[in-house]
Amino acid sequence: MSTSPNLDRPDFQTLYNSVPMWGGTPDELENHPNMEYFDAFDDKPRCECGIFGILGHPKAVEFTYLGLRALQHRGQESAGIVTADDDSFAYHHGMGLVATIFDSDTLSKLGGDLALGHNRYSTTGQSTLQNAQPLVREYKRGTLAIAHNGNLINAQRIRNDLEDAGSIFSTTADTEVIAHLIARSRQTLLEDRILDALKEIRGAYSLAFMGKSILIGVRDIYGFRPLWLGRAGDAYVLTSETCAFDVIGAEPIREISPGEMVIITGTDKEPESFMFGQTQPHLSQCIFEYIYLSRPDSVVFGELVNRPRRELGRQLARECPVVADIVIPVPDSATLSALGYSQESGIPFDVGLYRNSYVGRAFMNPSQEVRDLMVKVKLNPIHDVLEGKRVVVVDDSIMRGTESRQFVKMLRQGGATQVHVRVASPPNKFPCFYGIDTPTRKELIASSHTIEETRKYIRADSLGYLSIEGMLKCMKSPKDFCTACFDGSYPVEFSGQPTPQLPIAFVNEGD
Predict the structure, then answer these.
(1) pTM here?
(2) Span 312-324, pLDDT tens digits
(3) Other Cβ atoms closer than 10 A to 344
(4) In terms of Cα–Cα distance, which of 147, 86, 79, 134 is closest to 112?
(5) Out of 47, 49, 474, 482, which one is annotated catalytic?
(6) pLDDT exceeds 70 at position 73
(7) Would residue 47 show up in a list of annotated catalytic residues for this protein?
(8) Long-range contacts of 439-448 (CB under 8 A, 24+ apart)
(9) Side-chain-facing half-sphere of 296: CA atoms under 13 Å
(10) Domains of the chain with CATH codes
């Protein structure tokens, strides 16, 4: 989670413990002195990261910049681009959005036909420039750049072992563990060194590696995170989502298979492919890519996201019908699911909430009045749509419930006579440990409270969630998805840890 610098405020867990979230009355919650701070914590899962790499194009730098712009939704904390030209590496990274980090002057200093870029979110720990990626390291055989999307569940144990053996780390990101394992390998070729590292790490990862004349893509054996191979003219491209291909006019070739390494060394020959891992486990693709994370115009896990996201709304209408006048989305991620709900139910679709896309994370202000006004700067009701209407508002997920409570209140202020909340996913009861920044189990409202208790907290007239069975019914291959955040069935075992939990001081690149 990105944090603003120099803010004199407690962390979320301290805040959570200080507020009578469930024990107190609604008025006690509303007037609690620490509630002003909760607006800093968006009540949505944070995406992982965006990866973009290209080899063999004279406009590699510009294309990487545009690719990262297309993948901005996957990470808004930091971004970086690394290039290679005649054995010389150049790189630039910074905190914030891609457009604010790179300008024409900065891009002009990054030359060559080989580039690797990365957008980042962190899951825990501090948001600092030292953790921005791609990670660039010098080792025995030259310079190496790494871009990572996912989360290693055994990174802390490996890091402890490496530090005991004398290794020195300069970041708190689990990606640096991979760099150390590659450097320690006795193999000659980079791809063989990477394979040695992959034998040690466990968890979710899509990775892109760049050497002085090589680009390598890797996807974990479970297929948690997406990764695509494409072609822009003669050049080869690796990226997290196909929407990045569209921006630069590239043609998708195929999705990298789970447990596959793709090695790109030139434009005049096909990339080499190597399947690693002695066993092929059951696929555990992240279903939140379809619910919330990926762009609807991207092909992910073999399907355009648009269809399953709409179908989630249709199935939700079948399972949780209600008598109402209009269906509106919580903008913008729930728009397609709301359309599906409207189409299936026959209730007219409309836009009742306007989201200001240009509002970033607000600085904290102790004034309750200013805090209320800042909420309206970000999200505001459209009165003539809502006035006198029974409203179904469709959201993609509910984590803590704080944001749901805000927009229900806002819809009533906008004139809605009834507010029925419908959620196009099952109740989130368990945190993700595979690369999405979700709240801890204690913070997840559904982990310890019934749907009726949650309804009372958010002050809706009714509340309905999509069932796990209904959600999977919307997928082409229902058995190929990880549903751990809903049912606690973690596909990768956390050996030696009865309850999966990562150290709070350790940043994980799920970012």
Answers:
(1) 0.85
(2) 999 999 999 999 9
(3) 18
(4) 86
(5) 49
(6) yes
(7) no
(8) 439/12, 439/399, 439/400, 440/13, 442/16, 443/12, 443/13, 443/16, 443/399, 443/400, 444/399, 444/400, 445/398, 445/399, 445/400, 445/401, 446/398, 448/22
(9) 14
(10) 49-279 (3.60.20.10), 300-487 (3.40.50.2020)
